Amino acid sequence: MTQTVLHxxxxxxxxxxxxxxxxxxxxxxxxxxxxxxxxxxxxxxxDDIVAPGMGFGTHxxxxxxxxxxxxxxxxxxxxxxxxxxxxxxxxxQVMSAGTGIKHSEYNKNDDSPVKxxxxxxxxxxxxxxxxxxxxxxxxxxxxxxFQQILSPSSEDDGVWINQNAWFHMSDLDKGIALDxxxxxxxxxxxxxxLEGDVIVDGQELSTRDGLGLWDTDKVSFTAESNTSLLLxxxxxxx
Length: 238
What we know:
mainly beta; 22 strands
């Protein structure tokens, strides 16, 4: 029987640092809830808004797969591997922190905020050589279907990470119904609603709600309004 966990948008951790406003689906920094430490291999889902011209100074990471998904604005990235890049809506950025990496992230614009999701996934092996990649996707390819944006293989669509995980994005018109079939029986699916209203396996969800499902091989979606979704399929045992 399908198991689920529901995280309403309003129940997320809330951090306001002035230059940064962040909502935390799982325990992070000063937000701690022992019932919300992770969903399978997903450790962090941070929903960040960075003020014009501001950002995160250089800081370290290790042994984590870090995925950034810009939603609005321009985010400048610099890291200890020599990469200096800007990511925008439609781009996907990934870092395998492995043995250790330092990076900074800044809002490149002085007149508008930048909004992005940062997601941390536990890797399936530790101590890998640090790696950076980013790609630009055709957002039309997610119209009323699931566009794969991440997988475990460099030969597959999207970026890749050191984990048996698949991410998809979708923009559904009102009334569209789709099924998502999980790649592995060991995996669960975490659904994060970027915008809109959708019924997922009978559960009504709205903007920024999250729903985790496992012990299932298929998940149904019916859009109640024009809806944008992020689907994250990850191993449940880490």
